Amino acid sequence: MIREPQPHWQKKSYRSVALAVTIVFLVVVLTGILFVVQVKQHVVDLVAQQSFKTDQHVLKTLLDDPLQRNDLAQMKRILKDFFEGNPDYVVIRLYDPDKSPLFSATRPVEQSQLTLQAEITVGESQRRVHLVVIKEVVVSTQWLPYRGWRAIALIVLGCVVLSQLMWLFIKRFGLDPLYAGVLREQHYYRSLFDQAQEAILVMSQSGELLRFNNAARRLFKLPETMETGNLRQFHDKTNWLKIRSFIKMIKQQGHHTETAYLPSIDLCVEILGSQIVLEEQTLIQLVILDITEQYHSQLKLKELQEELERSLDEYRTLFDYSVDGLTVRNLNGELLLCNKSYEEMLGRTFAELNHQHFTKLCDPQEKSALSEKYREALEGKSILFEFTYEHKDGHHFPVEIRSIVIDYRGEPCVLTAVRDISERREKDQRLRELSAVVDHSNDAVMIMDDSGNVLAVNKTFCDLSGYSEEDLLNRLPLFLRAERHDRVFYTDLVKQLRDEGRWEGEIWIRHHRGHSLPQWLRIETVEEPENKTTRYVAVSADLSEEKAWEEKMLQLAQTDPLTGSANRVLFRDRLQQAIKRAQSRKGMEVQVFSLDLDYFKRINDSLGHVAGDRMLIEVAARLKRVSRGQDTISRLSGDEFAILVTCLNDEVDATRMAQKMLQAISEPMMIDGAELIITASIGVALYPGDGDDDVTLMANADNAMHQAKRQGRSRMCYFSAELADKAQEYLTIESKLRRALENSELQLYYQPQVDLATGDIVAAEALLRWHSDELGWVSPDRMIPVAEEGGLIIALGRWIIEECCRTIRGYHRSSGNWFPIAVNVSARQFLEPGFTDELVEIVRFYDIPPSLLELELTESMMLDDVGKAIETMKALSFKGFKIALDDFGTGYTSLAYLKQFPVSKLKLDRAFVTDVHRDVNDAAIAEALVTFTRVMGLSLVAEGIEESVQHECLNLMGFRFGQGYLFSRPLPKDQFISLLETKLGVSFVRTIPPD
């Protein structure tokens, strides 16, 4: 805030006083300088004494209060804290009135040190406590010389003279009393201005703020640092325009009063403005009263009044347009008010009914009963009863009456709601008539009100649910809910019933004994003309027999009829459900096992399908024993099973589970009195790592199972990415191989077998080769397993045999000579029923001697089914075909078996040929085999001869025939024929056609 302008005389007084003060200050400074120069005495006890007096006063003040409360402990704590906080004090003691010490604290002091001591009396006259304080002080004194005292005297005398002169000066000009009066007056008016409750502002004609009090600062939330300014910077444009307009009115009228609301700061004020003249300046003074609370109260009151008027209008509308007839009667029963529905109900107007007693509307015989009900209402009871009213035309109709006491225009009155229940009575009558029909219906019937409470049930419903009629009536049928349905099911049912007025479908209810019953339920909504739901009629039929039949059919459709385990359809469904649960449950793993029995076909072929079926039943039973109850065992087809296991956090180890299955299956089992042993191969795929759907998981588990078979059977194998790639490769090769067979893309290469002594070609081995435009060269190692698993091996083997026969016949046709060719036969083709007859038909078709077609078999192939192998070989030998045992030495053929096999040639595996010239053991085996075949009358061929030293060594040992890259690589037919023309052995030339 700005200060008031100062008068001229006051400014002059200020200059005079300032000059006088300056002179006095100079005199005092000169005196001090002289005093410091002259005085050499250093007295330190003056400060100590002053501090000592101050400490006495402080202690006295601190001890007054605890002394009055007689709190001796508090007094001791105060003295102790004071003594510890002031290290200069050496002794503090507290005495009671009889001089006995109550508290004492001391510090050591030397005798040479002087002390100050005092005794302070604390407390009232009735109870006095003495305090002794001793403080160490060091004092040294030095007397001034004579000249020093003289100088001091002169200085003191000069100060006295100057003081007298200043007093005369102030008195001469009258400064002291006048100035003091002005200051008092200014302070008085300033206090009135600042402490006023009303906000006061003084502004210039242009709106500049010159002065304002604290109330104005708080009201307008002006900054503490603001002294002057313009109100415009603290208000938005709208508020400033209002203030500016108000100032304009003051200028025009000299004064103005107005009430204004400033929304930007939520402030409502009453402003009293006037013009004032100060120091010949015309200023504007505003006195502002804060009436914000009154303003908001008026607004709230206005809103409440409007709300009250709206409520009254709403209640008046509800009263007038209520479907029920509404009346207000005084304590005497006379009508004061009624709505239109009541008038229409009775066929009378309000003018006819006004002040009419309620007994005028009923039968005279019922007046007493109606009067009794009215008295009950007057007693404050809420009454509900049915009665009969008389219409103006004379007919009577039933009504339902509800009455309560209310306050109407300051008087107690009775409010009555009258409802015409004629239609309800008619519907109740119809329901009673229908109930007779319903009670004898074969369907279960239940009727509920609009709240769902059971109103009626027939005997069939009681028999079906097991509940009596008393158990069901006036209850919500929630106890009939079965656990088969969740809350969503019932929520949807109620929603459809409310939206469409009906619901029909299959539902399960809970029987009184606890089990669930299936029903076909139909619920219909019976509505009043006003479209209000009043009844629900539920009609249901028992579906127990149908469900039993469906379950039986479903079981047949989802289970394997032989083993009783799940079939492929049920297995896939449960696998899909398990995947869904695993997707929403962290840590859940799904394991799929694909199990296939090893060599199960032999059981069927040797013992028959009945024995095979019994074995499958036993295998399924063993799988169930080693699995958990919640696991799914499924027979997919033939001897192929699938097992589904779900677990949390590695609860089930798939490896251990597979080993348990393999061990259980491999145990001997008695089938038709014979002890049989069978093994199985298992592939495992895991969710989510090996697939995210049922088809992928089952396919990957199947791929892993086939890999287990390729690894030697009777073992388990996990699916891996490599297996996936390999499976994809198998599918690709299978597809391309099938097309290659159809399009004649395959070809045979021929590798000669030579006489080691002469080098002549004596025979050849046919080797399958395939060059695909997309896959390139596909080796037999990749091709043959795919053909076996894909079911192409039979067709492929037939094509190879026919191609060899065509080559033999073609060479004979061109040269007149016969030439033998050896062909590899797969195990599946060899053990295929009718294989011998098929070969006979082929050689007859191409008209070649059977002896020129040499069949190469492996040891392991014959050991798979020794009896079947011996039988087939004998049949082939009888037909004239030559049989060679390929890769001899790498299998497990015993000499006893070899003696039974009707073979004509042995082919020593390359594993014994590679190091025959430097490995003693290989050489010994080779020499022994030469002797053995010579004795047995068998031909012997060494495979894999690639070096000359091997050739020489084998020749010296007595080997007659050999085969290998040393002599020739496998060659296409044309190149091989050219080579054959030059090196054909004479002993193998046949010029006479066979018989």
UniProtKB/TrEMBL annotation:
The keyword Transmembrane helix applies. Gene3D superfamilies: 3.30.70.270, EAL domain (3.20.20.450), PAS domain (3.30.450.20). Pfam families: EAL, GGDEF, PAS, PAS_8, PAS_9. GO terms for biological process: regulation of DNA-templated transcription. Residues 311-381, 430-501 form the PAS domain. Residues 383-433 form the PAC domain. Residues 730-984 form the EAL domain. Residues 588-721 form the GGDEF domain. The chain crosses the membrane at residues 17-37, 151-170. It comes from the Bacteria. Keywords: Membrane, Transmembrane, Transmembrane helix. This is Diguanylate cyclase/phosphodiesterase with PAS/PAC sensor(S). The lineage of its organism: Bacteria, Pseudomonadati, Thermodesulfobacteriota, Desulfuromonadia, Desulfuromonadales.
